[in-house]
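Q: How would the structure tokens look for this protein?
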Amino acid sequence: TYAHRGVLKELRSPYRLRYSRHLPDECAWFVPRSRGTIQPRDRVELFATALRNRGVPRVVVEYKDPEPATADAVAQREEDRRGLAQARADRLRAQSEAKLVEAERARERSHAATAGIEPGQPIRVGHHSEAAHRRAVERSRSAMDASLAASEAAREAAEQAAAAQRAAEEPTASQRQRRLKRLESDRRRLERRRKAGEGSGRIDAELAELEAQIAHERRALEATDSKVYGPDDFAVGQHWFIRGYPAVVKRVNRKTVVFDPMPAVPEDTKLLDIWRVPYEELGDLRSIQRFPNDVVHASTKDAASKAQAHKEAERLRKLADKAQAAAQREIDADRNENTARRAESAANIRSRARRNLVIAQVMRRAADE
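A: Here is the predicted structure in token form.
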């Protein structure tokens, strides 16, 4: 294919190919994002015709009809994709660590190049040390540039590793809900096209694939331990913790639930656009929790109830202080290690600390009333 690489690069429809050095010589060109997908025969034939029309000789189509789609096959493909993503994440993480080591060594070389020169000493023009001084400065600058380039490459590899790690994780219940809604929408669209008489053979194959994917997503959704929320789980007036803040259910819609933040929530947080939440996103919020109404509206007329409320509020405040201290330790470690795990851990601990502080404020206010 080397002699016809110009033609392969020019083609945009029906496929746009990309070259890879990691594939065998006879299969060095591939279609991006086509792994595990059904490619209709007529589209492959159209691509072969486009190659022949542009003068590429000996174009032969070898097509294998796809096996009947099943939910088990879809599950296996998903598992394979996650395995590939995990391998990519590990590889990129190792590259990032290697680049960090390379950057540190280059930085040390940069400092060592000018170690024998006093800081701030100018280049003495005409002096016998001028040439050596200039060479030392040039070596230091070159090494520092290499250090910065390696640091940037390490940062990019770390970001790509984090993205690959997210792709390797098991989808949450909310993600599967959103995926299921999209698949059902695609199925309705294909059914309308089939009724209109468009490419019945290809549409039947795509519909069979969609049915298998829908069956897999429903089966996986039923097997998940995460809560799948809906309108029946909420009622106007209920108290919930949403993203770590106490709020009252203001309105229950068909697709979303609207919360009204309680007075204990900071004023700047009340202005954020976080109080209207789609049901499919609630499963991803680790901090959502039912707040019993009797905690807020508890009777505090007798001294024993007030003392108990103050004691519980003080306990929660101490827990919040400990969580804040733990979060600060994670933040300091993140500055030193600069790892995504440290940053995520610090964010989770800060969220728990904020939640405990809000609970303590609410209970202390209830005890003082």
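Strands lie at 18-19, 29-30, 239-242, 245-252, 256-261, 276-278, 289-291.

The chain has five domains: 2-53, 71-117+130-168, 173-223, 231-290, 298-368.

Upvote if useful.
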